[in-house]
Design goal:
The structure is a single chain. The chain is α+β, with helices and mostly antiparallel strands. The protein has three domains: about 75-100 and about 270-344, conserved putative lor/sdh protein from methanococcus maripaludis s2 fold, CATH 2.40.420; about 100-110 and about 190-265, Elongation Factor Tu (Ef-tu), domain 3 (Beta Barrel); about 115-185, RNA polymerase II/Efflux pump adaptor protein, barrel-sandwich hybrid domain (OB fold (Dihydrolipoamide Acetyltransferase, E2P), Beta Barrel), CATH 2.40.50.100. It is built from three helices and 21 strands. A six-stranded antiparallel barrel has the order 3-11-14-13-12-15. Strands 1-18-17-16 form a four-stranded antiparallel β-sheet, covered by helices on one side. Strands 4-10-9-6 form a four-stranded antiparallel β-sheet, with no helix packed on it. The chain is elongated and about 100 Å long.
């Protein structure tokens, strides 16, 4: 009985497992397919990602290449003639010039003290008449006033001792002379340029040196020589006075006028020299901007003697080349702006 029952149970179990085995296989297969689909999807996504990344890289590279091509003329700027004129850009041809080192001076126009006359009456008396006014031009021997002598009671004339201009009139009718100054007459055909020399510059200044005397606006110039160099120092300013005599036949140098001057203390004849305004400093180098058509390009130059107004060029610029003499800072600004835009 027990063996029979055991046989029946074994048979039933086998039949039960046979009935459900297809479903189990189907489930296992579904899981495998699901896994395979996921792997395929992931693989496809990975391929798409790689392809997309590769395409973007190629696109970026192409765009970078395009940007580089737009800057084939990097280091140059194009400026139209009209814009250059509005910007104050001026050009010159490279050529020989004298490079001079000067000491700048500041001073005033004063009267030539060797040509001033303080006019007084010869004898004490009473002023009967005054014949000239302040600012009048007078000639030597011309009557200035008439005085009645206290001693003789006779009238006599006070006359101009020199040609000049009446700068002071210190008397009127009815005044008593008593030895006082009646007129001041000055010959303004020559005047003095009076300069104050600072201690640091005294060693460079000597009597007989040439000085370029000019007005503050530099519209009026005259070359003169230092005729006097005072041996004393002004106690207040600690400066030494230097005098240069100027011709003033046309009256352009007026006493009291503030002036400047430049004294040459060294000079050299350079094969090529440019104004100091032509030089710019870029990337640690001195450059000038060379013009070719409407194009301006920085050119590295080697400089020699540096003068007050110009600079010797040893190399980098050839004679006859056209360069920017004024307004070079405008070219530099445009070039730096273009470079900054490219870097971004």
């Amino acid at each position: 009985m027990n063996k029979k029952l055991l046989h029946i149970l074994t048979l039933s179990t086998a039949l039960f497992m046979w009935q459900f085995s297809p479903a189990m296989v189907t489930f296992a297969q579904a899981e495998q397919v699901k896994h395979d689909d996921y792997a395929a999807d992931h693989s496809e996504e990975s391929d798409n990602h790689d392809e997309h990344r590769h395409d973007d890289h190629d696109k970026d590279h192409f765009e970078e290449s395009d940007g580089h091509d737009d800057h084939d003329d990097e280091g140059k700027v194009e400026i139209s003639p009209a814009s250059a004129k509005l910007s104050g850009i001026q050009v010159m041809q490279a050529s020989p010039a004298t490079v001079a080192v000067t000491t700048p001076l500041t001073g005033r126009i004063v009267l030539n003290k060797n040509k001033i006359s303080n006019v007084r009456a010869r004898f004490p008396g009473f002023v009967e008449a005054v014949h000239v006014n302040l600012g009048d031009d007078v000639k030597k021997g011309q009557k200035l006033a008439t005085v009645e002598s206290n001693e003789s009671l006779k009238s006599y004339d006070v006359t101009a001792p020199m040609d000049g201009v009446v700068l002071k009139r210190e008397t009127n009718i009815g005044d008593v002379t008593n030895g006082k100054e009646l007129f001041v007459i000055a010959d303004l055909s020559t005047v003095w340029a009076k300069y104050h020399i600072f201690p640091r510059d005294i060693k460079n200044i000597k009597k007989g040196q040439s000085v370029d005397v000019h007005t503050l606006d530099e519209q009026t110039h005259q070359n003169a020589k230092i005729s006097m160099l005072f041996p004393t120092t002004d106690a207040l300013s600690q400066t030494v006075i230097a005098i240069a005599e100027l011709s003033n036949e046309k009256g352009i140098w007026r006493p009291g006028m503030t002036i400047e001057g430049d004294i040459k203390v060294g000079e050299k004849q350079a094969a090529i020299a440019v104004p100091r305004t032509a030089l710019q400093f870029m990337e640690g180098q001195q450059v000038v901007f060379v013009k070719n058509g409407n194009s301006y390009e920085p050119r590295r130059v080697e400089i020699g003697m540096i003068g007050t107004k110009n600079v010797e060029i040893i190399s980098g610029l050839k004679s006859g080349e056209t360069y920017v003499a004024q307004g070079s800072f405008v070219i530099k600004a445009d070039l730096l702006k273009a470079t900054a835009a490219h870097s971004h």
